[in-house]
Amino acid sequence: MIRSELIQILAEENPHLYQRDVERIVNTVFEEIIGAMARGDRVELRGFGAFSVKKRDARTGRNPRTGEAVDVEEKHVPFFKTGKLLRDRLNGLES
């Protein structure tokens, strides 16, 4: 599912809201999640999962084409851990 599909589904399920308002709500939620993660905060959506940022240390990697060693800088990457409810539904266990 892509963002525009999510907006369309939410707009259809909430006919009392204008589509532009639903779009603004979805964009605001995503921006808040991104902002919190950029500050290093953890974002938890109960039953769905938790977004966090993990630090990857600098290391020596390899260019897959040439096999040459390259230095890879330290970086921060997004990480998502599923919640129990989501995991159970994906595995066919209804709670």
Question: Please, could you describe this protein's structure?
Answer:
- The strands form two sheets. The protein has a three-stranded antiparallel sheet with strand order 1-2-5. Strands 3-4 form a two-stranded antiparallel sheet.
- It is built from three helices and five strands.
- The mean pLDDT is 94.
- The chain folds into two domains: 1-41; 43-95, IHF-like DNA-binding proteins (HU Protein, Chain A), CATH 4.10.520.
- The two termini are 24 Å apart.
- 0% of the residues are buried.
- Helices cover 40% and strands 28% of the residues.
- The chain is α+β, with helices and mostly antiparallel strands and 95 residues long.
- Helix 1 (3-13) packs across helix 2 (19-38).
Look at the structure and name the CATH superfamily of the largest domain: IHF-like DNA-binding proteins
> What profile does the largest beta sheet have?
3 strands, antiparallel
Helix-strand category = alpha+beta
Task: Give the overall form.
Answer: elongated
Helix % is 40-55%
Rg over CA atoms: 19 Å
- The ordered string of helix (H) and strand (E) elements is HHEEEEEH
The count of domains is: 2
**What is the CATH C level class of the largest domain, in words?**
Few Secondary Structures
Give the rounded overall mean pLDDT.
94
- Total helix count? 3
Distance between the termini: 24 Å
Per the CATH scheme, the topology name of the largest domain is HU Protein, Chain A
- The CATH architecture of the largest domain can be given as Irregular
